[in-house]
Amino acid sequence: MAPKMIFVANSRKEGNSTSKGPDNRFTGDVWLDSIFNDKQNTIANVTFSGLKEAYWFCWLTTNFVGARHTHEGGQLIKVLSGSGWVCDRGDKPKRLRVGDTVWCPPGTEHWHGADDESMMSHFVHAHGAVDWLEPVSDEDYKAKK
To answer: DSSP 3-state assignment of 118?
Structure first.
């Protein structure tokens, strides 16, 4: 028998599903609004606050990004509001704007987050396990300039 679809009413879990992103994965104020999770999928709206300084590695910076990471089955990103950046390891960061959609293939080492002068909210669908790697260096973040 074929699997049945899963319908999540109002695209939200029961109750208040919004929580602060963990400090070991994000810099600055990051908020996660979980929509759906199972063993193979994580679907959420993620908002990077931007527009204020954050403490990171004993110096002040304006990075509002998640740590570099990979997804076992890839990750789909769609920017809902604000602007930001996405970057594969070794590449120059690419600007993200409202409506942009990014597919990160399985195993791609990447990071994404808000611009230093804007917040960014994006819808993400991650497939499989996430492997959190090292934080994005100030040098890597500033390579966008």
So the answer is: coil
Give the distance, in angstroms, between the CA of residue 63 and the centroid of all CA atoms in the same chain.
Answer: 13
Classified as helix, coil or strand, 82 is strand
What would the pLDDT profile of 7-57 be if each residue is shown by its tens digit?
Answer: 555 554 555 567 777 777 766 777 777 777 777 777 777 777 764 333 322
Q: Is residue 86 part of a domain?
A: yes
Q: Which CATH number do you get for residue 43?
A: 2.60.120.10
Quote the pLDDT of residue 72: 92
List of residues 6+ apart from 117 with CB closer than 8 A: 50, 51
For residues 46 and 106, what is the distance between their CA atoms, to the nearest angstrom?
A: 20
Whether 134 and 68 have beta carbons less than 8 Å apart is answered as yes
Among residues 36, 32, 30, the alpha carbon closest in space to that of 11 is found at 36
3-state class (DSSP) for residue 50: coil
Q: What pLDDT score was predicted for residue 25?
A: 72
* Distance in angstroms (rounded) separating the CA atoms of residues 56 and 39: 31
